[in-house]
Specification:
Elements (H helix, E strand, L loop, with lengths): L7 H46 L1 H11 L7 H4 L3 H21 L12 H8 L2 H16 L8 H11 L1
Helix pairs in contact: 2-4, 4-7, 5-7
């Protein structure tokens, strides 16, 4: 084996430096990916805790799920039920927004699919959303109410 004097030590060091840079880049990309996955998992855990932490909201969810919720605007506006329903809807809005922004994937939030579907496809909740849509229109807003929550359910159904 003969040494090619045209390469020289500078070339060897340059080549080794290049290899070290490639290895470092691969390692950094792997660590960024792992960190991103950990952040996604943390986000999903936080959402799950938020979703289950309020007993009144959970009880109200079951009232919706078992079709026991009846929307009577005279007693609903300003009530605890309005607050609880809004809490559910805004939770699904946050999840839908994160899916739209590609912070989480639709498969990562499938744990919420059944609940989101049951809430947003409930006939009484649909009446509430229609009423909110009309309120939005009166104020000149073009976006439908709880659009991210609706987007979430639409995506979960596909």
């Amino acid at each position: 084996m003969e040494w090619n004097s045209q390469l020289g030590w500078e070339g060897v060091f340059t080549f080794l430096g290049f290899i070290a840079a490639v290895v470092s880049l691969i390692y950094a990309a792997r660590e960024v990916r792992r960190n991103t996955q950990a952040q996604r998992a943390g986000f999903l855990l936080d959402l799950t805790e938020r979703y289950f932490q309020d007993d009144d909201v959970r009880k109200f969810y079951y009232k919706i799920d078992y079709n026991e919720f009846v929307l009577d605007f005279d007693s609903f506006i300003g009530s605890d039920e309005e607050r609880w329903l809004d809490s559910l809807l805004y939770t699904f809005d946050v999840i839908g927004s994160m899916v739209r922004m590609r912070v989480v994937t639709i498969s990562e939030v499938k744990v919420f699919a059944f609940q989101a579907f049951r809430v947003l496809r409930n006939p009484e909740v649909e009446k509430y959303l229609a009423w909110l849509d009309n309120e939005y229109k009166r104020e000149g807003r073009t976006q439908r109410s709880h659009d991210d929550a609706r987007y979430l359910v639409e995506r979960l159904m596909n």
